[in-house]
Amino acid sequence: MPTEAAAHRRALLLLVVTALLWSLGGVLIKWVEWNPLAIAGARSLIGALVIALLLGRQLRFDGSFDQIGGAVAYASTVVLFVIANKLTTAANAILLQYTAPIYVALFSPWFLGERASRRDWLILLVMMGGMVLFFLDDLSLDGYLGNLVALGSGISFAWLTLFLRRQKDGFPLPSLLLGNLLAGLIGLPFMFQSMPSTSSWIGLLLLGVVQLGLPYILYALALRRVTAVEGILIPMLEPVLNPIWVFLLMGERPSPWAIVGGTVILGAVIFRARSGGRD
């Protein structure tokens, strides 16, 4: 049997892999030419199929508050983020979605009985500063409605983490299957307005399998061994890795401020991972 420390280290590694797979979203979405809500719905349905195929016999649906709450939070995160990207800049949408760690740190003591340490709050502030630097060239004060929707996406992401963490002694993956089905249902009307090309279908399959289905399975499993705050801080690597893929595959070079901010975030994540549970 693995020791608690070894299991914790493995969970942190799962979070890093999760962030790596999530970060493929930017370049894969650029590949797909289709309505954004149709993309969100289709990749969610594919993600649901992945979860059902891999874990079908292990899935148990009890209709509990935590299970349904996790599903609603998941669908809200996916749909609100897509809408925010239509109403404000992508930089604003990503930055405001990743205010999620603040809400997790605030609500964890009440909802989970897990208090964020002073070190966690300090790392959170450093990482949020790094995020601002990372997107400094692209941030905008315009698109107030989009910014509010993006904040809603961040709140939903925080509650997804909290609900999954609260199911740590059970099996949280049914929440993800239900959430994907709900997001797919919301996106369904937009799928019939037009049909994507063959190459876009390849991108959609990769989005559903590699960028959504598999990493969310890893995320749910990792949250059984880490606190909710850890589970939301480590994935902040995602927005740093996203433009790296775009640069490598599409030649879009990140700005100097993005490099500085990304370095700050990466350093904070490494420090948090190496410091383990010490305050």
What do you see in this structure?
The longest helix has 25 residues, at 198-222. Helix 2 (25-31) runs antiparallel to helix 10, helix 4 (65-87) runs antiparallel to helix 8 (144-166) and helix 6 runs parallel beside helix 8. The chain is 76% helix and 0% strand. The protein has helices at residues 4-22, 25-31, 36-55, 65-87, 90-97, 100-111, 118-134, 144-166, 173-191, 198-222, 228-233, 238-250, 256-275. The protein has one domain (4-275). The chain is mainly alpha-helical and 279 residues long. The protein starts with a helix and ends with a helix. 52% of the residues are buried. The chain is built from 13 helices and no strands.
Q: Proportion of β residues?
A: under 5%
Chain-averaged pLDDT: 90
- Detail the poorly predicted runs: none
Rg (C-alpha, Å) = 18 Å
Secondary structure category? mainly alpha
User: Which geometry do the CA atoms define?
Assistant: globular
Whole-Å distance between the termini? 27 Å
How much helix is in the residues? over 70%
Number of strands: 0
Any idea how many domains?
Answer: 1
Largest sheet: none
Count of DSSP H/I helices: 13
Order of helices and strands: HHHHHHHHHHHHH
